[in-house]
Amino acid sequence: MQDILIIGGGISGITTAVEAAETGYNVTLLEKNPYLGGRVIQMNRYFPKLCPPYCGMEINLKRIRTNNKIKHYTLTEVQNITGNEGNYEVTLKINPRKVTEKCTACGECSASCPIERKDDFNLGLNTTKAVYLPHELAFPYRFVVDTKACIKCGACVEACKYGAIDLNMQAETIKLKVGSIVMATGWQPYDASKIDNLGFGKYKDVITNMMMERLAAPNGPTQGKIIRPSDQKEPKKVAFVQCAGSRDENHLPYCSAVCCLASLKQITYVRENIPDSEAFMFYIDVRTPGKYEEFYTKVKGDERVHLIKGKVASIEQDGDSLTVEAEDILSGNKLRVVVDMVVLACGMQPTNGTLNNISRDQNGFISQVQGNGIYAAGVARKPADVSSSVQDATGCALKAIQSVVRG
Ligand SMILES: Cc1cc2nc3c(=O)[nH]c(=O)nc-3n(C[C@H](O)[C@H](O)[C@H](O)COP(=O)(O)OP(=O)(O)OC[C@H]3O[C@@H](n4cnc5c(N)ncnc54)[C@H](O)[C@@H]3O)c2cc1C
Hints:
By secondary structure, the chain is α/β, with parallel strands linked by helices. The protein has two domains: 3-95 and 171-186 and 351-406, FAD/NAD(P)-binding domain; 191-348, FAD/NAD(P)-binding domain (3-Layer(bba) Sandwich), CATH 3.50.50.60. Helix content is 21%, strand content 27%. Strands 1, 2, 3, 4, 5, 10 and 21 form a seven-stranded mixed sheet that branches. Strands 12-19-13-14-15 form a five-stranded parallel sheet. Strands 16-17-18 form a three-stranded antiparallel sheet, with no helix packed on it. Helix 6 (259-273) packs parallel to helix 7. The longest helix has 21 residues, at 386-406. The structure holds flavin-adenine dinucleotide.
């Protein structure tokens, strides 16, 4: 029987992989990053329970580690796919990690490396060395060399007493035969610098919601202390600007489904971290359907949280403060709120797949059933929270199995 190929090792891809493998099917899971886990692993906490995402992820990673029906590859992308349902031939390119299985993650290589690079895991809020551990709970727990930043000076090779670094390691190409393919390629944050009036890139203390996740995370660039990038001071007043680029014909015309909840969650980070803080959330509509309504009511009940129905017209810096200008739709008044930091609630944009002939909707999300043994799961298909992505990915395992059985 043919294997199932899953492209994308976020929570959706991992879910499809473990569900299909635990049913007895062979699965290959591939991920372009040097670690599995996708965007979820960058979150500080999950709404609505506010637990750290590692709890659930650790269980899933254990299911991968202990199941010999799952092969997984990191730093890997699809180069080519030919064939049809039940009989695909896929060419994969495995990019060189330059660090072998001998790595014990002792960190001596990093300590000796002279090169600094922007830490993409922390959205550029800090730097790492050119040889680095992607994050403290990375799977696999192994260092990696950023081949674009590395100057091949060899200091890391000398420093590694386990002989685990091979700067001459080359990319490998392998071919697989698979019966069905699941695209779980997820999302990327909308580029906030495209939104001219909101000051991202111009003012240091205008940050995005993903940056806020990393600022609040205990394993983030500030060890979980929420401070302003400009002067490392605690912000006492923080504005959250909803639909930053979303529901806007000039940017993303759709709603990303999770940004209101993400901001309400991040308001709790600010309020817990800085007890005398105040939060202002500017919104078009607050969308917290079903079970999430209770979470919204709880956050809104805090008297230092102000929810303002109105789209933000502009953000301007004045000294070391930021002035947010908006119309309060309910009162009809023009508002100018002076704050210390602004968080833009940027939406989720589908990642560009490398595959041709994949049908997508008008917003770039992949259609779930392509009619040829190729399926889409999670946010690759539509904006969604984690629990909906997991349900979707579980259903997708069944679709992928049916294709393999038919083939
Ligand atoms: C600010 C913010 C906060 C959020 N907080 C929460 C929360 O608290 N609770 C909640 O339920 N939801 C939250 N979400 C939503 C949550 O992030 C998504 O539901 C979740 O990430 C969906 O997982 P996924 O696996 O579908 O996609 P992703 O997490 O994007 O994973 C996709 C994976 O595929 C990989 N990939 C992409 N293209 C390729 C390729 N061509 N080849 C190989 N690999 C590829 C990517 O590197 C990535 O690892 C939040 C979203 C935002 C924007």
